[in-house]
Design brief:
The complex is a heterotrimer.
Chain A lengths: L7 H15 L4 H17 L14 H28 L8 E6 L5 H13 L3 E7 L4 E6 L5 H20 L6
Antiparallel strand pairs in A: 1-3, 2-3
Chain B lengths: L8 H27 L3 H4 L2 H25 L6 H30 L19
Helix pairs in contact in B: 1-3, 3-4
Chain C lengths: L1 H28 L3 H26 L3 H26 L5
The chains are: A mainly alpha, B mainly alpha, C mainly alpha.
Chain lengths: 168, 124, 92
């Protein structure tokens, strides 16, 4: 099982993507898609720099994605309001530092995607001295609020999802 | 455009609402790109175009074709997922390039030094 | 209702084309290279949305493939340009 189907999750995603692209559920497409979904992860296993992803708690991931979606829509309207009505000279656009506890590369990738998808915040990089994240905020009112939000609402679920079992 | 005549009312209302909202959001994002004063503010403008604007238009397209052809047409989902996965990467790389270039060029008035995170190399 | 839908699609077309004009203005005027790359990236995104809306306008599925290809090439070109700005300087 482990040897012939190294990553069932990516196989499933590839199969669904193939069916969506062809827009059909004919047996021929089902079969060809299944072949591709079986072969591609097997052939590209050597190319992956990190050990394969293991999802510990899918329902936490679903809740996190839903919360991020709500947050994206909310801050979209905030940013539109600022662009349309605020005086751009009075905006307090700043870089802030956020200390991070997360070390898993998949988790960091997910966190950066969520933060960057949210309008109003852009992830710059993880600063080389110490494990701190440099973040640019469009209109900063309260630095501590941003740090707390990212730590509790985003980072804690991601640590739960990806680092389960690695931590004491 | 003859096809639109067959769209029933219950489907036309959400499609119209999503189209108008998406169009307005796309326009606001581009407006932000044009009129905000510094680069570090301008990079936040296209973010709303990419997320909510593109999302609304793609969902409207999905509803429209699904109702019109009376079968689920959801392959716009691939574009949505692709955009949601790639747009953050582009924004992050452009942002990092801008910060490094400003620090390397030693410009003070661009906003790269605001917030006490980045300093000019000579100040370290 | 048909005319309202037509009007809405026309409104979105105007919006997207106007945003492309804004992006083009920033592309021409942008004081630094990163501004131009950002404007180009947004221009790709608007072109992709234009293809989607044109598909609605003409009721055709062919535009989906066009939108998909525009999204793919746009991502690759933006990444290449940003990476070049990051490391491709002569003064390094």
């Amino acid at each position: 099982m482990k040897r012939w189907l190294p990553s069932p999750l990516s196989s499933l995603v590839l199969w669904l993507a193939w069916l969506l692209l062809n827009q059909s559920t004919e047996p021929a497409h089902l079969l060809l898609g299944a072949g591709l979904a079986w072969g591609i992860p097997l052939l590209t296993r050597r190319l992956q720099p990190h050990p394969l992803l293991r999802l510990a708690r899918p329902w936490v991931l679903c809740r996190l994605l839903w919360m991020a979606l709500v947050e994206i829509v909310r801050s979209c309207f905030n940013v539109s309001r600022i662009i349309l009505f605020a005086n751009p000279e009075g905006l307090n656009s700043q870089f802030i530092r956020v200390p991070l506890d997360l070390h898993d590369p998949h988790g960091l990738a997910l966190l950066s995607c969520l933060i960057n998808s949210t309008p109003g915040t852009v992830w710059v990089e993880i600063l080389p001295d110490g494990h701190e994240l440099a973040l640019h905020v469009f209109d900063l009112h309260d630095e501590q609020w941003w740090i707390d939000t990212i730590k509790t609402r985003y980072e804690k679920p991601i640590i739960e999802i990806f680092e389960q079992g690695e931590r004491p | 455009m003859n096809a639109a005549a067959e769209l029933p009312l219950w489907a036309a209302v959400p499609v119209v609402a999503l189209l108008v909202l998406g169009g307005a959001i796309v326009l606001i994002g581009a407006l932000g790109l044009m009129r905000l004063p510094t680069f570090y503010q301008r990079i936040h403008g296209p973010a709303i175009t990419v997320t909510l604007g593109a999302g609304c238009l793609l969902i409207a397209s999905m509803i429209y074709f699904s109702v019109l052809q009376s079968r689920p047409v959801i392959h716009e989902l691939i574009i949505s997922v692709f955009i949601l996965m790639t747009a953050p990467v582009v924004a992050m790389l452009i942002m990092r390039a801008a910060v490094y270039r400003d620090l390397r060029a030693g410009k003070r008035d661009t906003g790269a030094m605001s917030g006490d995170v980045y300093h000019l190399p000579s100040e370290d | 209702m048909t005319t309202v839908l037509e009007l809405a699609i026309g409104f979105v077309l105007v919006c997207v084309i106007l945003s492309m004009v804004f992006c083009a203005v920033r592309l021409v005027r942008g004081p630094t290279a990163q501004d131009r790359v950002l404007a180009l990236d947004t221009l790709w995104m608007c072109a992709m949305l234009l293809a989607v809306v044109l598909g609605l306008r003409f009721g055709s599925q062919v535009y989906f493939e066009a939108a998909m290809l525009i999204a793919l090439t746009g991502f690759v070109s933006s990444i290449a340009l940003a990476k070049f700005l990051l490391r491709g300087e002569i003064i390094e």
